[in-house]
Design goal:
Blueprint lengths: L9 E5 L4 H6 L5 E4 L5 E3 L5 E3 L9 E5 L15 H15 L3 E9 L2 H4 L7 H21 L3 E4 L13 H10 L7 E4 H6 L4 H7 L3 E6 L14 H10 L6 E3 L7 H15 L4
Parallel strand pairs: 1-2, 1-10, 2-5, 5-6, 6-7, 8-9, 9-10
Antiparallel strand pairs: 3-4
Helix pairs in contact: 2-4, 7-8, 8-9
Length: 265
């Protein structure tokens, strides 16, 4: 996939319903969540694109790809079931996406290895799911990225170091990763590692202490972004927080903190 460099932008992750608040905060884009926002589960269990959504500008990235009820690391679940869901998800994303937009494959609950499944078998099935997601996303002009998640969310790929090793082991080295300060901090991964692997990063997420809005804690925002930029990462940065008391107001302050911390600005 050919990637054309674009000016660095800073966005906020939220559901489609909060698009007006995100815009009011002065965000460059809304990184829309997929599950329950763009893609809605029907009473029959089928997943379909949400209907009647208001227009929003095309986005460069999307998050929350899979619901926790999925089992993308379970060999007992036919890959055909995973394919059905992913086809619906990417079809729901595509109308809202910029060309070449990235889709974050985090979804820690969905990728946790089920009890009774060996790590080797779970990793092998997860690799098959990642490969499937990569290929189906490409059919829609999208790019799937693997996000390392801390151990409280999943037992499979917790750090950038583990992510790179997993992708290389399973012949998936063309799949890029997401660098997320929240998970870097909780896994105590060094910024030296972030810088060394920055060339394999396709998107970045950022938050402050305990995933509060940037500027409300003491996490190393500038050091994290500098490590990424010095390592060659030239892409966008999205704020991902647990809660907003007033997204439009707090988001503006948070975006200012991120832009001030980002040496690419």
């Amino acid at each position: 996939m050919t990637r054309t460099p674009t000016p660095v932008q800073h966005g906020i992750i939220a559901a489609h319903a909060r698009a007006d608040e995100v815009a009011a905060a002065g965000s460059d884009y809304l990184e829309q969540t997929v599950v329950g926002s763009l893609l809605v589960e029907q009473p029959t269990g089928e997943w379909r694109p949400a209907a009647g959504l208001a227009p929003v500008p095309p986005a460069p990235s999307f998050a929350i790809l899979c619901p926790g009820t999925m089992r993308v690391s379970d060999p007992a679940v036919p890959l055909a079931e995973t394919e059905t869901y992913l086809r619906a998800a990417f079809a729901a994303i595509a109308p809202w996406a910029r060309p070449g937009a990235t889709v974050v494959l985090g979804s820690g609950g969905a990728r946790r290895i089920p009890e009774g499944v060996s790590r080797a078998d779970g990793e092998q099935r997860f690799a098959g799911s990642v490969r499937l997601a990569r290929d189906l996303a490409a059919e829609q002009g999208l790019e799937v990225l693997l996000e390392p998640l801390h151990q409280g969310e999943t037992d499979l790929v917790n750090t950038l170091e583990q992510g790179a090793a997993f992708l290389d082991t399973h012949d998936l080295s063309d799949v890029r990763m997401v660098a997320d300060l929240f998970h870097v901090m909780l896994e105590d991964e060094s910024l030296e590692t972030v810088q060394r692997l920055a060339g394999r990063v396709g998107h970045a997420h950022i938050a402050d202490t305990d995933r509060r809005p940037p500027g409300q804690g003491d996490w190393p925002l500038a050091e994290f972004l500098t490590a990424l930029r010095d390592g060659g990462y030239a892409g966008h940065v999205s704020i991902e927080c647990f809660t907003w008391e007033d997204l439009a107001v707090e988001g503006r302050v948070a975006l200012a903190a991120v832009r001030e911390a980002d040496p690419a600005v």
